[in-house]
Amino acid sequence: MAKLRAGLIGLGMMGRHHARVLSGLDGVDLVAVADANGDPHGVANGRPLVSTVEELIAQGIDYCMVAVPTALHEQIGTTLAAAGVHAMVEKPLAQDSASAQRLSDAFEHAGLIGAVGHIERFNPALQQARKRLAEGELGQVYQVVTRRQSPFPARIADVGVVMDLATHDIDLTAWVTQQPFTRVAAHTAYKSGRQHEDLVAVTGQLADGTVTSHLVNWLTPFKERVTVITGERGAFVVDTLTADLTFHANGSVETPWEGVAQFRGVTEGDSIRFGFAKKEPLLLEHEAFRDAVLGHSTDIVTMSQGLATVRVAQAVLESARTGTTIEL
Fold this sequence. Notes:
There is one protein chain. By secondary structure, this protein is an alpha/beta fold. Helix content is 32%, strand content 27%. It contains 9 helices and 15 strands. The protein has helices at 13-23, 53-57, 73-82, 97-110, 124-134, 161-177, 258-261, 281-293, 303-322, and strands at residues 4-9, 28-34, 49-50, 63-66, 86-90, 114-117, 141-149, 181-189, 199-206, 211-217, 224-231, 234-239, 244-250, 268-273, 326-327. Helix 5 runs parallel beside helix 6 (161-177) and helix 6 (161-177) crosses helix 9 (303-322). The mean pLDDT is 94.
């Protein structure tokens, strides 16, 4: 069976990782790469290096990975759709809802596979959490809290933390609970001298009443990627940096020491760190998209789902701007 012919446009920090995975992906040939600024990380490795998406399409590609700056997603994506080329676009799908809608529509109308690179869905720890939630291990979910903090990444120039980082938490929260956001309220800060926000604190609510909280910034001198899902039977703590999933159970043993018990709320129970296979999320993401292009049933992040995430992110920015809660 002939291998799929893949192209990659955008050879920056994320582009080099996509090139690495695509270069070794079973059933796929990375046949050419493109970037108007050349190949700073040397990922072409003898393959044709071109400057434009049109030149990349001319290499006869079946699908394309788009890792260009967010502001270029619509232009690059709609050109690929018009040429009949399937595409996975790095998150967020586009810089605003209108652009994301046009991009999603272009692939749907062309009958093509379009996906968004929300890589956290492919983190083994979050996949385990979703599976266990679906099996009722936490019972009713009460709250999802995420913390995504780190120093400023030099790779980002065109968007702030809401579009670049908070979109991860918006998507993973809606996905792991299988519930859409219905309202958000947010505050932002601008502390690094850039035109875009570098800190956001968001509270929200999902359709089933689950309360959410998301703290995201580029101002913390350490890196943290934590999701805490609290329910009636305990809490899951997901560390996506290490792909660890820990379950803290509500205990059934009474605490006779009144001075301690009165401050505990629920009783502390056993804690378990689950063991499971840990495959690289980026590889899992590319395998899922490859399989979708081949016509197999697989759990990719569709462009319509990516559009929903952009809409929530825009509501977050609107809430911060107006000081109001935004209904979705």
